[in-house]
Amino acid sequence: MVLVPWAQTMRRYLTLGAVLCMPFLLSARPAAADDLQTLPTVEVIGTSDNGVGTAGTASEGTVSQRQLEQRPVYREGELLESTPGLIVTQHSGEGKANQYLLRGFNLDHGTDFEITLDDMPVNMRSHAHGQGYSDLNFMVPELVSGLTYRKGPYFADEGDFAAAGAAHIGYVDRLDKDLVEVGAGSFGYARALGAMSRPTTGGNVLAAAEGYHLDGPWVHPDDYKKGNLVLRYSDGSADNGWTATAMAYSGSWNATDQSPERAISDGQLSYWDSPDRTDGGNAQRFSLSGRMARSDDDSRLSVSAYVIKSELDLYNNFTYFLFNPVEGDQFHQHDDRIVGGGKAAYTTFGTLAGRDTANTVGTELRADHIHLGLFQTQDRQYLSTDRVDQVDESSVGVFAENQTQWLSKVRTVIGLREDMFYATDHADNPLNGGTATGTQLSPKGSLILGPWAKTEFYVSAGEGFHSNDVRSATTTVEPTTFNNNVLGVSGQPLQKFPLLEKAVGEEVGVRTTLIPHLQSSIAIFRLHLASEQVFSGDAGDTSASGPSMRTGIEFANTYTPMPGLAFDGDLAVSRARFDQPVDDGITVGRYIAGSPAMVASLGVTYNGDGPWFGGVQYEFFGPRPLTDDNSVRSPPTNLINARIGYKLTPAAAVRLDINNLLDTQTQQISYYYASRLQNEPLSLVGTGINDVHLHPAEPFGARLSVTVRF
């Protein structure tokens, strides 16, 4: 399949081909022993690599399995909050994908933050609910081997959705011991997990099964039920071996969505209620994936491939009776897709101009076959169809990267990536269907100086992108409008948007371990997006806004004064503004609604030789503008979660997790928009009342779990 006309991109491909070949021409011979530069010893403190001497930027890092095990979390996705400056929250039922916030972005469900699990993409393109939709409910925390995080568009092997950052989660190939865990707690929490691994001839088999239930504190319980199955075969090691993994997930839930502040203030609604108690959804995900690696002193080859079948049916009502005063505004979003793809990278080690060098070339392929539907419903019962689309979207990415140690205190990482997209949309309205293409050439690079006194300095710059929903690139007329206060078909013209949205970033930083047992890093960044437009799965059209700029500083610290004891403290301050004032229909200004200006966290974890283990984590999520002119702001969010455990025997342990330790009444997230309640005047139909709509953080709750390993 030809992705784009060759005549339009031949020059670009020739340039890329020259870059791909040049490192190999310059480093044709392996490095002789006399040519090798001796790199500084990489000191490992606590349980993580400190990155001095190995990292390419000041804002990348790794988090070990041991660190993650002691981190208190309420929902699985919160494991990602071990990434400094990242907030993971929720504004609806637990089965829905989380909200992610990082570097001044309200990333919605993952638009500019790439997530992979076991080398499979989590972000979904052209999704029914939102671009980059990243649902992690299929993740089993006990199987996570650790994660690596990166921020900014500075890495050649990172493509779609990685403009603000990326997190890559790994699974273990085997367990030291089989385990069984059962737990129960507040708000209908119940969980059972069994996992085992067995050696076989030449390899190892791992199997796990999880059952989960949670009601939450809501007036209408979530009744979230999910099940997970994992079956994995591995042979060899991560550097020389292969794995094959099958996963299955199914979940269903009710949802208490965000509620209007006015209804809570005057007593119409409980703080734990919402106007439409029939919201909710169900989801399924099945996958088969594999990866292999081959390494020796001169080269490394890694290959991964996957196929994913996922389905989501989501029912939401955010405006209540604003447009349809009789049946309400509930809508149903349907997403049913098959995703296939893979990634391969080949690295050679040699010399470039007599200096140690590593040269990598690689490719990344992905194809999504998607059936999308947006329907009007009442109490989850069908009323009418807004639009139905059959989308096929495919992409090819090729990349090259060179890492060279020029001097004992000077090294560089230079990369180039080319991405090519081709998509078709067979829409129920022919005026909203068609073909869309996009290409993005992204140069990237870092200069690293040091180390001096266990301290390195970094200068990074690069370009990246995120893909837009295919429907935003093909839709030409409004799919729905409201005639006589009833939802109907419209033909109002709409602007089409590009399939790919460019991002340009710069960063300077420092990383040090000068103080014994303390790892610290500071990164000052800037990221410019060509446009903030977002396809609204709720309405079936595109909301457009202008270019934007985010600047900020991040300060991350880990202190390990003794084995098993670790303190962490992170602070991220950012500024997010549109280049020019934007009219959001409520106000006119340059502020970006929902963008956090400050995020901070403090934590301590302990897992020493004694019987006690656990941790405490404090999270601060600062006030956010809710309108473009900053006239309406959210309150700050402060939460403390805790975990305390005791090892009854070498094989058995009991653990108590406490959510919202101080029982703080605070908001998970909030928005400002127009809505209308059923008892409000009919004259407000179509216009409504502008108000803050909030989703509260869960109150104090406890979960008790018993784990047996054998």
The CATH superfamily is TonB-dependent receptor, beta-barrel domain
Structural domain count: 1
What is the 3D shape?
Answer: globular
Helix-residue proportion? under 10%
General description of the model:
This protein is mainly beta and 710 residues long. The chain has a single domain (6-709), classed as TonB-dependent receptor, beta-barrel domain (Maltoporin, Chain A). The protein has four helices and 42 strands. The strands form eight sheets. The chain has a 22-stranded antiparallel barrel. The chain has a five-stranded mixed β-sheet with strand order 3-11-12-7-8. Strands 4-5-6 form a three-stranded antiparallel β-sheet, with no helix packed on it. A hairpin with a 2-residue loop joins β27 (480-483) and β28. The longest helix is centred in the first third of the chain and has 21 residues, at 6-26. It is globular.
State the main characteristics.
710 residues; mainly beta; Maltoporin, Chain A; 22-stranded antiparallel beta barrel; 4 helices; 42 strands; 5% helix; globular
Secondary-structure blueprint of this entry?
Elements: H1 6-26, E1 44-45, E2 48-49, E3 61-64, H2 65-69, E4 87-89, E5 99-102, E6 105-106, E7 113-117, E8 120-121, E9 123-124, E10 133-134, E11 144-151, E12 165-171, E13 179-185, E14 189-200, E15 203-214, E16 224-236, E17 241-254, E18 259-260, H3 261-265, E19 280-295, E20 299-316, E21 331-352, E22 355-378, E23 381-407, E24 410-427, E25 434-452, E26 455-467, H4 470-474, E27 480-483, E28 486-489, E29 500-512, E30 518-529, E31 534-536, E32 541-543, E33 548-562, E34 565-583, E35 588-591, E36 598-607, E37 612-621, E38 637-647, E39 652-659, E40 667-675, E41 689-696, E42 701-709
Parallel strand pairs: 7-12
Antiparallel strand pairs: 1-2, 3-11, 4-5, 5-6, 7-8, 9-10, 11-12, 13-14, 13-42, 14-15, 15-16, 16-17, 17-19, 18-41, 19-20, 20-21, 21-22, 22-23, 23-24, 24-25, 25-26, 26-29, 27-28, 29-30, 30-33, 31-32, 33-34, 34-35, 34-36, 36-37, 37-38, 38-39, 39-42, 40-41
